[in-house]
Amino acid sequence: MQLTGKVVFWRDDKGFGFVVCDQTQQKLFFHIRDHAGTEGRPQMGDTLQFNVKQDKQGRDIAAPWQFVTAKTTTLAPPHKAAVHSDSLSIQYANQIALLFRISFLVAVIIALLFGRLLYILPLLYLEASLFTYWLYKTDKEAAIARHGNRVTEESLQLFSLIGGWPGAYIAQQQLAHKRSKQSFRREFGFVILGNTLLVIWLLSPWGEQFLARMALWAG
Q1: Around Cβ 199, how many Cβ atoms within 10 Å?
Q2: Residue 9 is part of a domain; what is its CATH number?
Q3: Are both 170 and 127 inside the same structural domain?
Q4: Could you tell me the pLDDT band of residue 78, with boundaries at 50, 70 and 90?
């Protein structure tokens, strides 16, 4: 059934917004890729005609949609400045990720040599989780904008492996990102298992002996 509604939010650089249905008063997500016409881009206050379907997460969205009144402007790609901004965001995320990996490795080595790894382990987990959540958020925004340059899945899994998996799990649930891809979810499960086994080993007598030997060697 064809429904109508008014646009109450629109972000042109990302190509998505929200429309409130006149018939049901439901607030629905819509994306520029589901535009059934060839003219114009939506603005706040525009009236749309649309159907309701479900996305991959089972949520109702307005798609396909078109303008009730034809727009006079032509459909244009996202502004170059917006695309450039997205590219800079991903490049910045990748650069910070590299610096974080180096800093994390140095911190672990120093903690091992001085026999303090178990004492700073909670702090390392917290920092890795916060950083991993930020990476997921950055990649989610790039995915919404349909940006070709993305944070690699290998990077997301790596930061989960070194202790950021709690942050990754929260990001998957809150941001609805990377939780429907079965291959990624399966790898994520192995990452959690591997990280958990490593921590259990470090807390075991064998792990304590290893940490003691490292501290002795450093001394």
Answers
A1: 15
A2: 2.40.50.140
A3: yes
A4: very low
Amino acid making up residue 149? N
90 and 58 in a common domain: no
Q: pLDDT tens digits for 139-170?
A: 888 777 666 677 888 889 988 988 889 999 99
* Residue 49: strand, helix, or coil: strand
pLDDT of residue 38: 65
Q: What is the pLDDT of residue 76?
A: 45
Check residues 125 and 148 and name the one with the higher pLDDT: 125
117 close to 108: Cβ distance less than 8 angstroms: yes
Q: Which amino acid would we find at residue 145?
A: A
| pTM score | 0.53
Of 27, 17, 31, 24, nearest in space to 2 by CA: 24
Residues 62 and 106 in one domain: no
Domain span including residue 32: 3-67
Q: Are 61 and 54 in contact (CB under 8 A)?
A: yes
Q: Is 174 helix (H, G, I), strand (E, B) or coil?
A: helix
Q: Are strands 16-21 and 27-31 parallel, antiparallel or unpaired?
A: antiparallel
Q: Are residues 214 and 118 in the same domain?
A: yes
Same domain, 121 and 214: yes
Task: Looking at the structure, tell me whether residues 56 and 91 fall in a common domain.
Answer: no
**Helical packing angle, 117-144 and 165-175, nearest 10°:** 30
